[in-house]
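Course assignment 3, question 2. Fill in each field.
Student: A.L.
Task: Predict the tertiary structure for the chain below.
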Amino acid sequence: MDTAAATGLTFRDATDADVDALVALIESAYRGDSSRTGWTTEADILEGRRTDPEGVLAVIKSPASRLLTVERDGAVVACCQLEHRGDHAYFGMFAVSPALQGGGLGKVIIAEAERHAHETWGVAEMHMTVISAREDLIAWYERRGYRRTGMMTPFPYGDERFGIPQRDDLQFELLVKPLAQPAQ
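Answer field:
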């Protein structure tokens, strides 16, 4: 059975016309009081913006990326960035409407993103970076087959395009998941 069809979801590439809706979705999932409706909020560790129209448009326009837009009943309910990076794909800009979080939608979307990256680009791994302080979010990804690598990159303190940190220990950890099993 097609899981996407069973959940009433439509997956498509974002267009320029989607930019405002996607910025609003991403902001609602991570920042401000509206994000507290869901469980992916970063409101306690970061203030300010999560993204902006220029950042979303750059992903849409990049030839190596696609911004997968997920609709239900004609409304944008989720999105994620897929970027082809040689032997692996990068997964980012993942957002699910806070009102729909916790119902299994994220699992369906990440599975579709992984399938697409593997089938379209032939990549064997998916990579992502997650703020290491987000233990609950990392645990969710681990349940989806991602593993912590211990490889850290610093948070870009002083660059408000990434938010205004509310603590001084933020960094990103690389998570990796194999997408193809070796032949046995």
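Instructor remarks: Strands lie at 9-13, 46-47, 65-72, 75-85, 88-96, 125-131, 147-154, 164-165, 171-178. The chain is about 30% helix and 35% strand.
Grade: pending
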